[in-house]
Every structure is written in structure tokens, then in C-alpha cells.
Amino acid sequence: MRGLRITLIIAVILGGLFVAADRILVGFAEDEAADKIRISEGLAEKPDVSINGFPFLTQLAGGELDDVSIGIDDYEAPAEDGKKIRIAELDATMRGVAFSDSYSSATADSADGTARITYDELLKAAKVEAAEVAPGMQAKVVGLSPGGGGKIKVAIEISVFGRKLPPVGVTSTVTVEDGNTVYVHADAMPKVAGVSVADRKMREITDFKQKLDGLPAGIDLKSVQAVQDGVEIAVTGTQVKLVG
What we know:
There is one protein chain. By secondary structure, this protein is α+β, with helices and mostly antiparallel strands. It contains four helices and 15 strands. A hairpin with a 2-residue loop joins strand 11 and strand 12. The longest helix is centred in the N-terminal third of the chain and has 40 residues. The N and C termini lie far apart (56 Å). It comes from Streptomyces polyasparticus. This is DUF2993 domain-containing protein.
């Protein structure tokens, strides 16, 4: 019996050492992965990286990680015409992350997550300079806010012969186009001072798009909805290139 107890004690100690070594190594790997992603994506700070699943050592030996969570704050994604748009939060879960022997490259078999763009940031894509929508009438977008039911309220400032009218709120649907573009489209055109404005001319003001060109390779926009502090975008992807 004593020999059995000693064997059990040794097994427990060795098991504890294995777990401790596994957790130390996974922490080191998370830090290294975060640094490589920071460099690869040109980030100002390291992202949050969590390598999930246990044990890590067997995943490492197999050259593939089961599940990796990545969180990036204030991610500046290239947009159209050389401009950039700041994504306030980008959170994604990567599955089946295969990496090279030298750890110089890593690709996820699949991924899903969310990205959030604030209203102030999305406003940069709107028509914020006044343009003529009817004889003697000009309009421009002056603000964005939640419109309820996953929609956006677009605030339009209208001037009639130089006289500014109170802003008009236009409820708009927000959708995804072509896997990389957020599209804001007014549900209906309001009357201005009791007058109907030509739909086409007004839509040149109310409707706008924001294309995102610089998301990690393999990531596409899936759907989008307006929330309290911006638009929340569901992202998905296959063969997502993380590093290299």
C-alpha cells in the first residue's frame, strides 16, 4: 500500500509540473503570437491573444491549435482612396490554426467574430458637405445615431435659400455588400417644409457606403446592424491568414 501511495504522490506531482509547464508555455506562445500579429497588421499595441484548449503541448507538437481568440482595439483598416477607418473593436475566434515549423506563418481553417465601428467614424463616409438637392435647397449629413430595430437614424441639415431648418431624421437600413462594404440606405424620403424632394437627389445625401479593404486576409463581412454606440458587424472567414 505504501508503494502505491508513493506512486500516486509522484504521479500527482508530475501531473502538476506538466500542467504548470503547459500553462507557462502557452502564456509565452500567446505573447509571441500577439507580437507577430501586431507587426503583421501594423498595430500600435499588441492584441489580446488566448490559445484555448488543453493541453497546449500536444497541440504544439501536432502543428495545429484547436481554438485561438484574438481581440484588437482601435484597429485602423485601410478604406477607399488611401483613407483609413478605425474599427473600435475587432474580436474573432480562429479554429484549426496551422503554423509553420519556424512559426513564421499561421493560417486558420475558419473564423467568426464581430467588429464595431462608432457612429463618428462611420460619419466620415457620409456626405458632410452641403450639396444642392432642389432649386434653392441644400442638404448635408450632420450626424448618425441608433434608429431602433437595428437601423440607423441619419440626421440631415437642410437650408432653403440660405435659411437653416431644424435637422430631419431619416431612418435607414444598414446592410453588407460584396463581403467588404457597409451600405446605409434610407427607408423613405421625408418631406422638407411640406415639399417632396426628388428621391434621386436626396439619396445622393442620405445614402452612403463605407468599404473596408484592410481586414485580415480571408475575413469577410457577414451582416451588420446599428447598436447604441455604432454599427456592429458580424465577420466570418476561411483560410484566414494571421501571420506571414
